[in-house]
């Protein structure tokens, strides 16, 4: 009997050791952890303490980002005289990127990339732009969009851990107009409203066919997303239904909401995203600033499956990924997106070029520069001002890699050529929004491509781009 008891005691001891070993395998490790492509799935901190901790950290997070923006840019509100977006919002004027001390744009343009790199003279505003909190990432919406969606449908897109960073006067007009390729006679079919799941039917019934109407319904329907869902690792105070496609691509255009790309690891190498407009997707053949997705259907499906969840299917399953049905739902959504037209450009002819009888001398000179000395037309040919390709500008020639607010500024890699039709309606510029005005964009490409444009040529080029 004593022998049997000893055997059972030994067996229990072995079982206990085995259980403790298994628990140790799955318990969080404080030291010696390998880097992982996966986010933690099981959250061991309760939601109340997560929120309290992140709310307490928010002032310092936002101060750090705003200090960076003020170091890089002139953020003042200086609208250009007589220049507006399609519905009347003033376009901001002037170069806003600040130069290094004791150097001019002309002197900088005369230097080689190697000289600029060695002397550390690359303008801070030309470096990649980090997310408001790069280590955290995720979708962040401008305040005016948060307020409008809350007013219309009661859904709150506020994040308790951070706010959007760029001032409103550098963002697209809100709400943006909607122009349809099928009904150009109607002008702005949004009637000056933000299209949501509350009003889409009222606004578009009788204008769209049933497939397109259903596609639009899906585009304005909120679905779970990494930061907006029901789980304890969400970043909204209350459990959330999620976000809709049109929370970023508001009215089929953009409100400049930001995010991080889902296709790069580790976290510090991920790029900030400036939400591009959906206008003119019917003439585009690449989608996603760097992903090179081949159809708008691919893009639509990818966004729901992966971009909403940082490219992590494990987290997507946990938080409630919405799997769209390709042959109907994805097709319907894509069919509506393909109707979104560029804004009117009254000075352009059917070839997408200036009508000499309508254009000014400065605009005509700018057009000649665009397709000549400035080489813009190499990647942005008329009539839609895109070549539907990807190009690597190799901006890293001009600077040494460095950490900026949790982001490693190194190589951008190949970036798709965005259409320039309606470009004045889509600030800020470049794939990550680092360029606040078109003048910033001209200075950037003048330096990166070694164009040697003089002051008058820059003004003429701007005058032309404002007519696209």
Strand order of the largest sheet: 1-2
| Broad shape | globular
β-strand number: 8
Share of residues in helices: 25-40%
Give the radius of gyration.
25 Å
Sheet with most strands: 2 strands, antiparallel
Unreliable stretches covering 5 or more consecutive residues: 1-31
Q: Short description, anyone?
A:
The chain is mainly alpha-helical. It has 14 helices and 8 strands.
Name the descriptors:
single chain, 468 residues, mainly alpha, two-stranded antiparallel ribbon, 14 helices, 8 strands, globular, disordered N terminus
Q: How would you describe this protein?
A:
The chain has 468 residues and is mainly α. The protein has one domain (47-465). It is 33% helix and 5% strand. It contains 14 helices and 8 strands. A two-stranded antiparallel sheet has the order 1-2. It has a two-stranded antiparallel ribbon with strand order 3-4. A two-stranded antiparallel ribbon has the order 5-8. The longest helix has 26 residues, at 47-72. The radius of gyration is 25 Å and the shape is globular. The model is unreliable at 1-31 (pLDDT under 50).
Mind sketching the topology for me?
Layout: H1 2-26, H2 47-72, E1 79-84, E2 90-92, H3 105-109, H4 113-118, H5 143-153, H6 200-204, H7 210-219, H8 245-248, E3 258-260, E4 272-274, H9 296-305, H10 313-319, H11 326-337, H12 361-370, E5 390-391, E6 402-404, E7 407-409, E8 415-416, H13 438-448, H14 455-465
